Batch of 2 targets.
Target 1
Amino acid sequence: VPLRRSRGGPLVTHHEVINRALALELVRVTEHAAVAAARLRGRGDEMAADKAAVDAMRRELNQLAIHGTVVIGEGERDQAPMLFIGEEVGDLSGPRVDIALDPLEGATLCAKGQPNAIAVIAMAQPGSLLNAPDCYMDKVAIGPGYAEGIVSLDASPAENIYRLAKAKGVAIDEITACILDRPRHAKLIAAVRATGAAVRLITDGDVAAVIDVTDPAKTGVDIYLGVGGAPEGVLAAAALKCMGGRMQGRLILDTPESRRRAEAMGIDDFSRVYDVDDMASGNVLFAATGVTTGGLLAGVRFGPQGVTTDTIVMRSSTGTLRRIRAEHGLTAKFSAD
Ligand code: VTB
Ligand code: MG
Ligand code: MG
């Protein structure tokens, strides 16, 4: 790998130079998806908002000097017209990268004008993002600063709560667990409440919810528990790879059809527990832009002077988290042509 020495500074690999520049390029990609979705915010049409975000994200991605392969996307080839798993994106001139994306994570939240809808993307070297089928994943996540094994999918929810409270040095009733409000979680919610811990129920948006555990002092969420989308699990793991934090995920492959699809994607151990590094390794880049305002990011604001967006962009190789509030004066750049 060619090295470039900045004057008096440390050696920087060619790869690292590309990596730095790409991180900022990703901001533009999620900004465009978020603005497109935000124009359809609160209109009750999640399909339209989703499609607008997909179109915008794809348009921007295809301008990047990368040869990208979508490994976590909108669905497999015959189910999604664009940004499907396996699709090649970018201008195909640059380095090979794998991409996980969700142009509008929480499409229902966006359609209903509720908090925490985001446009999100992660990028890494080929082979370093888990190629998960679009099935469910059981998840547990806590923030940075805890030893390995504090939480585990092999432990009961109550056990995870006890261990976390002990490690954090607080009483159990000072712990808050975030869980998707679904009938499938009735037993989980009851088990967590039985420990004395609080439960924050969310209707959608578990990528943002997992990221929330990285800053409990601000978000009030100590632990994320429960079953959500596997693609969202890989995206959340990519974020934690950059921010620190512990997470485990296990694919729910409870039908022959789901196991067949998993096998086709190279998964042979159907009950494997994945840690953060099993889902996102190497030099991971991650970006997310708020569509509707949530705990993590403000949503898109439309004003007389232009459009304002809030984005976080991170790199795992340095652990740098940048918050970029962009004021876009030239709003015409957001239109399709
Ligand atoms: C979760 C949630 C997502 O899908 O992953 C959920 O965080 C899981 O699916 O925002 P169900 O809705 O079937 O429970 C979303 O709601 C949409 O991607
Ligand atoms: Mg989506
Ligand atoms: Mg989603």
Note: Residues 105-106, 180, 182, 204-206, 228-229, 232 surround VTB (ligand 1) (CB under 6 Å).
Target 2
Amino acid sequence: TSAAVEELSNEIQELLLNLPTEKNWDGTSLYQYQGCWNRSQYVSSTISFQRHFQAKESDIILTSIPKSGTTWLKALAFTIANRSRYPIENSPLITTPPHLLVPFLEVDLYTKIQSPNLEDFPNPRILATHVPYASLPNSILNSDCRIVYVARNPLDQFISHWNFLSGSQQQNMNLVSVEEAFEMICNGVQTYGPVWEHILGYWKASQEQPHKVLFLKYEDMKEDIQFNVKSLANFFGCPFTEDEEAQGVIEEISKFCSFDNMKNLEVNKHGTYRSFKNEAFFRKGTMGDWRNYLKPSMAERMEKILEEKFSGSGTTW
Ligand code: A3P
């Protein structure tokens, strides 16, 4: 990260010096900016995103803490919002991985000193971010653009993330054990964490502004994807017509974006996105995999923490 730090403007370097720090699972440093733990380069790109992004009313912003179903949400949102332009058999998702079609604002786009030009991005612009609600640019908060959040059981999200990093050999990572990583997340220390703050920030916003923020759960999507596909279309202002319903379009989109279909598309089996293999974004796609990694006592500990953090919020885990 020292090379990355060197690239930062003086202002950001100075800011970093004054932020609380912790070690990440791979021994690199995390910084706490606006309540959220992140690597220095993403603190920097978040600030650039906050300062320079200009939201449009037609924008759709997909949000999540990593490993909560972002890739799935990207495929769904893209397919639903663009369905009059691209019938499924011509979907750009057949030839382009979801993360290239729907880039992350702070991870992919605002990483350079110079801001990206997003004016030519096809309308509606479907863009993604992992930053917490409290760090979204004012431009997004003040515009009529739409925000979709996907949340996932924090234990599954944790195990998904741990596997994602431990499987990525390219980075030469020396990861701590799953027990040590778990200890850290119980203290709120994880990329884009604490996870409860991330979820609660968007949850509260969705309660206060239901027309602007749609809050989805990975588990609900697994249980009834067609219901959630309809909710997304309604939320985007392009509800399915009776004709579409009769033709089975909702079912077709649900199947096209399903784990099995996406995982088996050639385009997602090969190639890389940043330093990760595209296939790493499709691991198991199940619920409750944490049971294969964590002792019941560990799960109980996290459940207690979550119970306390979520109490009175109107939602639970
Ligand atoms: P697992 O590691 O538990 O399998 P993200 O997209 O936010 O990085 O999250 C990745 C997680 O979502 C992984 O979970 C991945 O397998 C799962 N996933 C990816 N595409 C999916 C899909 N179409 N349906 C269901 N789960 C999916």
Note: Residues 132 and 197 are 8 Å apart (CA to CA).
